[in-house]
Amino acid sequence: MRVDIDMGETGENKPALLDLEELLATRLLVQGNSGSGKSHLLRRLLEQSAPWVQQCIIDPEGDFVTLADRFGHVVVDAARSEQELLRIAARIRQHRVSCVLNLEGLEADQQMRSAATFLNGLFDAERDYWYPVLVVVDEAQLFAPAAAGDVAEDARRASLGAMTNLMCRGRKRGLAGVIATQRLAKLAKNVAAEASNFLMGRTFLDIDMARAADLLGMDRRQAEMFRDLKRGKFVALGPALSRRPLPIAIGRVETEARSTSPKLTPLPDAPAPEEARDLIFTPGPAEPVVMTRRTAPPPRPTTDILAELAKAAPAGAQEEDEEELSEAETETAAFERDRMIDGLLTAIVADPDAAFRSDGELYQDFLVRARIARLPGPAVTLAVFRRRFALARVGIDAEMAASDDWRQVINLAESLPDDVQAVFILVAKAALTGAACPSDATLARAYGTHSTRRARRLLDYFEERGLTVVRTDFAGKRIVAFPDLGCETGPGAADGPEANLVSLSAA
């Protein structure tokens, strides 16, 4: 179905039409200096296409939240946890609701992390929900910078990766990227290069004019025209717009941004110098008293805090305690310590959000819980925590892990990366107990992701390593065999429901 969006008028006073279906397949890049009318152009595009396609807007300044009153967009405040944003993004794709991710008020690092999390949530949606979505990113140079800046490197990498996925791989998932930037030179080239449609506005710097001319296939001597473009005037090119560079004037919009361009207003009558001093230095009767804020000390590094929490008892005291304990008492103390560690790990596994938190966050949570429970002995290292937490996720305690069968499973699992060991152990447990092969949803939760496709690829990874053999029975159910263990799982539906890892642990 062809739907033409009226963007305004061409230089010949003809309607400037944009093929919406072609735009969804080819993406759009908008470039122009501050004040050239980029936000006005995006608003016109969003208003005209709102009845036809779902929209998601990454809004760093909160300018597009006014679309909610007129067109029913849901405003999502980005000041949320990562898991909340992932769940909201998944529901947005599932229910096909247009939304505005409002990043206003967040620091640059947090804006990049929130935008990356939200875009990844849209990108990782289940295949059944790959409906067309127009994803508009204003000030895209903030989220896909061409070079490292003052922001944290992990935030920059996450944001750049999400933007690259949107522009390079989003089309097959129904995501059509529309990005706007003040300067092409500040935007990562691999993000800008994926757009096939261009709307170039007023530009002054030579390097940006040259890049704009190259993208439009124009002679560099013609690049001077970009300096003469007025506000709201753009040059269009692309399969969804025009096969040749076409000047267009963007039409009017129905909604307005909360922030507007500054306009001159007359100054009030100037008071006498003495009156001016009184106005400035004398507090008014209704003026609130401003309390002096003490300068807070700089925050302590997380590594220092963890090191302090992980400190064992003083060496002298520890040696005295060991001398006083008999061999039987030492074994009892070690058993009690293992029992306490298993209890702490079980409590963390019971948290429904634990499967989707990073190992660093879980380790910090464990250290705090161990401190509260007064866990005796030296602190558990991160490597030991990862191994024992992988066992706890699938209900294997330290005593069970010491058996001959499980010792072989652990040896095989230790040849794999830490983050996939829990999935391997989960499937191995099903094989040793003769249980049905876990579903993709159960594997995904053990892996700490919402994407069943990622979890499914782990089974292929295990098979490539020669650890498993995956086959299907005549009913189409999946069976995973372990040649080294001499056992296999029972038949299980790959698309079955997600099993509760806590209940599996209890079993």
Distance between the termini: 54 Å
Helical proportion? Answer: 40-55%
Binned strand content = 5-15%
CATH architecture annotation name of the largest domain: 3-Layer(aba) Sandwich
CATH superfamily of the largest domain: P-loop containing nucleotide triphosphate hydrolases
- Read across the widest sheet, the strand sequence of neighbours is 2-1-11-10-9-3-8-7-4-6-5
**Beta strands, count:** 14
Low-confidence stretches: 312-322, 502-507
Number of domains: 2
Mean pLDDT over the residues: 81
Summarize the structure.
The protein is an alpha/beta fold and 507 residues long. The protein is 43% helix and 14% strand. It has 2 domains: 247 residues, Rossmann fold, CATH 3.40.50; 204 residues, no CATH class.
Notes on the protein architecture:
The protein contains 20 helices and 14 strands. By secondary structure, the protein is of the alpha/beta class. It folds into two domains: 4-250, Rossmann fold (3-Layer(aba) Sandwich); 303-506, no CATH class. Helix 4 packs across helix 5, helix 5 (108-123) packs parallel to helix 6 and helix 12 (327-350) crosses helix 14.
Can you tag this structure with a few keywords?
507 residues; alpha/beta; Rossmann fold; 2 domains; eleven-stranded mixed sheet; three-stranded antiparallel sheet; 20 helices; globular; disordered C terminus
